[in-house]
Fold each of these.
Amino acid sequence: MSPSSLSQPTRICVFASTVLGNSPTQVASACSLAQALHAHNIHLIYGGGTTGLMGALAKERVRLGGKENVVGIIPGALTAVERPGDVLVEEGWLARLWEWLGRRRDTASAPGVKIDSEGSGQNQRATLLSEDEYGLTIVTPSLAARKALMIQLVSEGGPGSGFIALSGGFGTLDEVLEVLATRQLGIHGRGMCLVNVEGCWDGLVGWVEGAVGSGFLREEYRGLLGIRGTAEEAVEWEVRAVKGFDAIKLTVRGSV
């Protein structure tokens, strides 16, 4: 953890479905997670959608603590589906992101974003219509840029920052595996915890155990993944995340 991150707020990025699923228990878990984040004064980063578990989580976190505690990150191609009826505004998003991060506009650029001499962003926009309900939203040019920005913001967060996954489908699974793979490579040092409500993550947990047993995953890598039964337990796991994992440092050409 860099010295500069010690002065930053704790940030937890939550991966979740854009549908509600068939069980009301899943929705209750999303709201419980928002309440746990509020109780611990943790900022929420999420996928930027206003539907499903994702929307329920963000809306509850904003209701409890205000829109300044929430930032959503969504690829432009998904806005029509995951933010139906929203209005996109192209000006001012970058300055507002830097303000949210507490840094000067010219100190860095977000992954996948080019900053011109006037400080405006290319290929990215801010959505403002639902900001009072769902927090600040950043629209990225691609899924890869979305995940890179999520990892960057969490990596720069204060102690206890990390990643939590609620129930979801292919997209949620992809995000979980991205975080685990980049942690294994030493690109970041944050924890990934699953909220295993109604056994939703049993399949992935079984695969991890099988990969370890078959020799395709080193035993110590099992500890990269936390599994907890409730949202509150997952937040507590992140706050007390095990430190000292000796990640493999690989030389990777290009960006991961």
Amino acid sequence: MNVICASPESGILVPIPQYPLYTATLAVLNARVVPYYLEESRAWTTNLDTIKESYQKAKAEGTNVRAIVIINPGNPTGATLSSEDVRSVLEFAAENKLVVLADEVYQTNVFVGSFTSFKKGLRDLQKEVPTKYDNLEVASLNSISKGMVGECGHRGGYFELTGFDPKVAEQIYKFVSIMLCAPVTGQCLLEMVVNPPKEGDPSYPLYKEEYDAIAQGLERRARALFEQFEQMEGVECQSPQ
């Protein structure tokens, strides 16, 4: 976001509700938030028409919309986008030359259906329509403080750039390299996230047992909260996904 926001007229599409890091960062950068509202009636998924309306309104007001943030699975909503929703956002971003900032830190916390990453969605489009989406830029974000392997409180994560010009990527990595790095424990946990034990490894049975136990425990707690909220007068709550 530091690199994308070149002037006070720069704007980034941000989902509402959202993790407040994005609006706070844009405030620090003296850039513009372009809000688009998620659709509660469809389990808080994206609505492409709403995104287009927000984009056109911002453009008409003089905002140079540079990127779109997608939080998938959603935070705080918990919504998981379908592969069709992922595809539609990518097509919209390509049409309008927007960078896709894919916040996918909750990608293993999915109870219903399956998770589709934006990188996978992009690769599928590139197979179907060769060359058309080669320059679509996607930054995929992940963290160790979510999911089953990491824990809240531990700090570490990564981003992967797809479709960026190598010279642009070089400048982004150079900019990031001046910042503080994660502590040693965070770096060790990150290795576990990206390179976990595989079936046949001596540690795999224990890893699988602990991983599944954590996942099942999170789902039980999510459903217990949902059931309690449903009993509260005047409160509506979507089923955990």
Amino acid sequence: MGSYQSLDEGHVFLGYGYIPQLVEFDATGTEVCTATFGHVNVTFSYRAFRQACRGVPNALPDTYACALSNGTTAVYMSWNDATAYTAWTIYGGESEDSLQILHIANRAGFETYVDVGNVAFVKVGAIAGIGMPTLSSIVVVQQKC
């Protein structure tokens, strides 16, 4: 048991079957990635493949907002398991009914942080390219960070 997959640029990806390990080698034979899962002789894989992953979570993005001492609002946003979005639209206002676009921020890794004006309520939308952004629930700005 085990598997072999040819990848771009001369890389290969191996699954060892009864040894719960997956390894990618570059064109020179140098190990560039190793993943181990389970225990030898207990966990095994019939086949292993390396491929692009597109995470599409069922949950909405998470948002936290708090007031800074300089009078602005800090907004932290993340969307666990989502991989296809590139930016955030940040909405804010003094009431839930008065939210307007305040800022558009490029995604910055797992969690993105921006400062916006002094607002009482915040909502964010993840921008995935085409169509409307996925909106989070409205968040009340915390008094202090």
Amino acid sequence: MVKDTEVKQSNAHFANGNHGGLVCVFTGATSGIGASTLQKMVTMFSSTTFYVLGRSAAAFAKHRSTFTGIGPDCKIIFLEAEVSLLSSVDLAFTQEGLETCFALSYYSRMRLTLNLLPLLRNAPNPRVLTVLSGGREKIMREEDIGLKQHWSSTAVINHTTTMTSLALEHLAKNERRLTFLHVFPGLVKTDIIANLTAPESSGLWIRFQVLIMRSLVALLMVFIGVSPKDSGERQAYHLTSESYRPGAWLVGPTSDVIPPNSALEMYQERGWTEKIWEHTIGIFQSALISGDNSIRQ
């Protein structure tokens, strides 16, 4: 367990080291954990460029003024994009038929990571952090990885969590200089669950399940949820601490590295790191209408 005081001390020490001239890319930084992490990072770097991908420049405007005030020598560049669309990540404009929650939690994150690999390979300390549910992997419906036939809010969480861990492990095997962190932040007082919706084609039972989940999580957040500010401080620690060396790591709410659970070990032993990446590349190739033949496994 890394205590809050240790996190703050580490971040302060890093900030005093005069780190600058770097480039950081954020998605989901217009609110919640992402915005709080970006706000902390701006105070820890000098002369650094932060690219922020999001749906609404207007929604980000209030954060931009704050960030500019606390990090005047940093450059904040907002790129307006519908991140749930893989084509928006590629700066194209096509509709792809991918379910939004699944796309936001998994496919778009992997597509962005894949696109940034050439730059990450040349970075001095390349690090990729995805905040989801690292260490909470579950058994998946192996015959329906993309949940086209068996969608439910629980299934989406389970699939995207397990797939993320396996995909990052695949990338780490091929990118030996890069650090990949799959973080479970615990319950954070954000609106991410409140905004969870079932696909339009869902029946009443699925919609009812989503409603119950949203209500239960909202109640738990009142009693045991941590603030976005505290979570952002900890994510900044994950991005800058020397505790995380190159490789793929599962990181818990108190910043401990978590060993693979039985479900993840089972998939690792059966070669699913490669199977999941092949599935992912297949989705990219079928969803994107870009004529780009440069995608590699």
